[in-house]
Specification:
Length: 694
């Protein structure tokens, strides 16, 4: 369990690296006899107006200032504790919270019961959410936004119960603000409450065997929700339904009809508003219930109350709702019963975090043929087929999730359109690593998954494939769309998932680059003339520092028309060639440096064909490879974060700096790895000294 803001939690708070530990903060507040006030989520986070309610009309109150006897729980947690307030459109979140109350084990994972308003009360509460592969503990104070003494957002139907309002505040904090909660898909919150895998079904399209999928999912405790988003659907208002609204699905069942000796599929839903129920067939006021035995009505929990919960036929659900969202608590729920996988199945899980970086690894979809191969690539190997599979096939579930989508929404960033391709590598005897443009031009994908028009933050695909090797390529629809993602791969038998990438290290310099660099050397006035100038500047010790080196390089390059090197580049030149750590270079070291510079110049000009003074970030990997350096995608991302501009371009000075730092880093490592074991050990002092002087 990580604290929010802690390194590795995946959640950035102010200041960077700051983390809040619930027990430590509560004990400190109790000792000092003060109530906690959260500096990380103060009142300024609610900085917008809501439906004519201005900020100056808001008052932040603790529950003890709202009611005389506040309780965290009143007779436990129930879906009826979740009622939407009038000022925030987060019904999607409330639908997920209502579903969460249906499973005690899940609920108390998210809502710890070691807190309340009496014993050890210090104005501090905490909740736990799954955030991109990790469980994170989120701390809040208990000040809640009110208007005229009443809560304006989520509230319980029991006036002195506050667990649900505090849970909403914790989720707002991890999302960036209350405002960030306006509008969304319930599957996002259900995923954050469970760590499960989410699917979304477009009910405007025919869905094969959908009720069976829903029934099996419900029996395996999956969380479900229905949404009405499509304006083209039959007018739901006349039937008591709300447009632009999300409903919790709280039960799925077949009901036998005594009058016809048949069965009807029914769905029970709940409106988070706590009012406005379905009034069509099988509603609370429907005559259909009169023919159902009382014992059966009791067994399915039928209650005729004005509480926002109602039953409706599956046929009408598909007719009036536009989307079904399902969150499976673990990947086994996708297959058991429905697909013949045994109940004892344990799933193997592999996880990778990655990113698309502008100009580096944001290559776009496969229509961008020149850059598509720049996208991150992941190699998966499955050796054994599923047990009891007569066709010797393997079940593989691939889920790709975008990170930080709510915080981006707060910052008015456009949501990414994304997906992934799966390629079969078993048809080729050998393939390049990573896969290159030639491979993609000559091989069709085994499958492709793209986010739907609902723009969910996660796309998921279940495949049945023979044992073998495959490559997953996450992508965004367009080039240079930047974002971070979490890739999860599940399989019944063990899978080996790895980045499909170069091995880091030195390779041979391209012969063409060598030749052009040597030709460049011959075109200089003469090596003797340069040496004479070097010794003149160097003085008695025949060595130069970085300032002298800058002078000499300006002299050496004056006929080539290149921009003068910056002070920082010259300092790094010294560090790169200065093996004795004297801070100076002799002429032999200078000659080797000059040859390296000429090689880098040749490479830069090779990729800067139009002499614009920059190369594209997409060209950085092949450019560095041609001068002898193999690097991984993650390193390319880091380099572009540091050296590329907003358009993903790298100028000559930054390219040189990038090459210097790479060479120096590899040289430092190899100096401490004489046995080529690819593992070294540094003391902190050694590490600081080596990296600082580089």
């Amino acid at each position: 369990m990580l604290n929010v803001g802690e390194r590795g939690s995946g959640v950035r708070r102010r200041p960077a690296g700051f983390d809040q530990n619930f027990d430590e903060i509560r004990n400190k507040c109790l000792k000092q006899k003060i109530l906690f006030r959260d500096p990380e989520f103060d009142t300024y986070d609610l900085s917008v107006s809501y439906r004519n309610l201005q900020k100056n009309q808001l008052e932040w109150r603790r529950p003890k200032e709202i009611t005389d006897d506040p309780k965290f729980f009143v007779q436990g947690a129930s879906r009826f504790d979740v009622r939407q307030g009038p000022y925030l459109g987060d019904c999607w979140l409330l639908a997920a919270i209502a579903n969460l109350t249906l499973d005690d084990k899940l609920f108390y994972k998210v809502v710890p019961f070691d807190q309340g308003f009496h014993i050890n009360y210090a104005g501090i509460f905490h909740f736990q959410f799954w955030q991109f592969g990790r469980w994170v503990d989120v701390v809040i104070d208990d000040r809640l936004p009110t208007h005229k003494g009443k809560l304006i957002f989520l509230q319980s139907s029991t006036k002195n119960e506050f667990w649900s309002a505090l849970l909403e505040k914790a989720y707002a904090k991890i999302s960036g603000s209350y405002e960030a909660l306006k509008g969304g898909l319930t599957m996002e919150a259900m995923g954050d409450f469970t760590g499960g895998v989410s699917e979304i079904y477009d009910l405007n399209k025919e869905q094969h065997n959908l009720f069976t999928i829903m029934l099996n999912s419900f029996q395996r405790q999956s969380l479900m929700c229905g949404g009405i988003f499509d304006s083209q659907l039959p007018d739901p208002d006349k039937k008591g339904l709300e447009k632009g609204h999300a409903y919790s699905i709280t039960r799925i069942t077949y009901i036998p009809l005594p009058t016809s000796n048949s069965i009807i599929p029914l769905i029970r839903l709940r409106n988070p508003w706590g009012k406005s129920e379905w009034n069509g067939r099988w509603s609370d006021i429907s005559e259909e219930w009169l023919n159902i035995p009382q014992q059966l009505k009791q067994s399915i929990g039928l209650k005729i109350e004005d509480d926002g919960e109602f039953w409706m036929p599956f046929e009408d659900f598909v007719k009036y709702f536009s989307a079904l969202e399902i969150c499976h608590l673990n990947p086994g729920y996708l297959d058991r019963g429905q697909y013949g996988v045994s109940e004892g199945t344990k799933w193997d899980l592999s996880i990778f975090e990655g990113e698309w970086v502008r100009g580096a690894t944001a290559g776009g979809c496969d229509k961008f043929k020149e850059t598509f191969s720049s996208n991150p690539q992941y190699h998966i190997t499955i050796v054994d087929p599923d047990e009891n599979d007569n066709n010797n096939m393997c079940t593989v579930i691939i889920a790709l999730m975008l990170k930080d989508t709510r915080c981006q929404s707060k910052q008015k960033k456009k949501s990414l359109s994304f997906g992934f391709y799966v390629y079969n590598l078993n048809t080729s005897k050998s393939v390049p690593k990573p896969l290159d443009t030639h491979f993609f031009e000559n091989n069709d994908p085994l499958d492709k998954v793209h986010c739907s028009e609902f723009k969910p933050r996660e796309v998921c695909k279940r495949l049945s494939v023979p044992p073998g090797k495959y490559c997953i390529v996450p992508y965004t629809s367009n080039q240079n769309e930047q974002g971070a993602f979490l890739l999860r791969v599940f399989s019944e038998k063990k899978n080996n998932l790895a980045e499909f990438d170069n091995e880091v290290g030195m390779v041979e310099i391209d012969d063409k680059i060598k030749k052009l660099a040597l030709d460049s050397k011959k075109s200089d006035d003469s090596n003797e003339k340069l040496k004479k100038y070097f010794l003149k500047v160097a003085g008695n010790d025949k060595e130069v520092d970085w300032m002298d080196l800058k002078n000499i390089l300006d002299f050496a390059m004056k006929d080539t028309g290149n921009t003068k090197f910056s002070n920082d580049v010259c300092r790094c030149f010294i560090a790169m060639m200065d093996w004795d750590r004297s801070g100076k270079l002799g002429f032999k070291e200078f000659e080797r440096l000059l040859m390296a510079i000429r090689q880098w110049q040749v490479v830069f000009k090779t990729y800067d064909k139009k002499n614009k003074g920059y190369i594209k970030g997409f060209e950085l990997r092949p450019a560095l490879s041609s001068v002898g350096y193999n690097i991984k995608t993650r390193t390319i991302n880091t380099m572009c974060h540091r050296y590329a501009n907003k358009k993903g371009y790298i100028n000559f000075d930054d390219f040189i700096m990038c090459a210097i730092r790479l060479k120096t880093t590899i040289d430092i490592f190899k100096e401490h790895d004489p046995g080529n074991k690819n593992v070294v050990s540094f003391t902190l002092e050694e590490w600081v000294e080596k990296t600082f002087y580089s």
